[in-house]
Every structure is written in structure tokens, then in C-alpha cells.
Task: inverse folding
């Protein structure tokens, strides 16, 4: 059974990381073409 990951991870604030956003956007576009559907990737980090 899958655990609730919201207790273990938090969203990453990427507003000051344009290169990371660019790479995520490129990966989304590639996946969109590969599977023919819209894909949205979300960046999480493990809570400490």
C-alpha cells in the first residue's frame, strides 16, 4: 500500500532557478510528444 507522501516531501520553490525550470519544461515537452498527452512534472524534495 502506498503511503501518503505529503508527510515526507515538500514542493521545491524554483522561482530563482530558471535553468531547472527550463530543463523541466523540456522534459515535459518531450514526454508530451512521446505519449501524446499533456504531462506536468512537479519538483519535490524530501523533508528533513
Result:
Amino acid at each position: 500500500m502506498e503511503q501518503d507522501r505529503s508527510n515526507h516531501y515538500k514542493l521545491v520553490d524554483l522561482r530563482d532557478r530558471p535553468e531547472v525550470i527550463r530543463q523541466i519544461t523540456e522534459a515535459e515537452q518531450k514526454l508530451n510528444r512521446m505519449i501524446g498527452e499533456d504531462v506536468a512534472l512537479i519538483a519535490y524534495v524530501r523533508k528533513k
Observations:
- The chain has a mean pLDDT of 90.
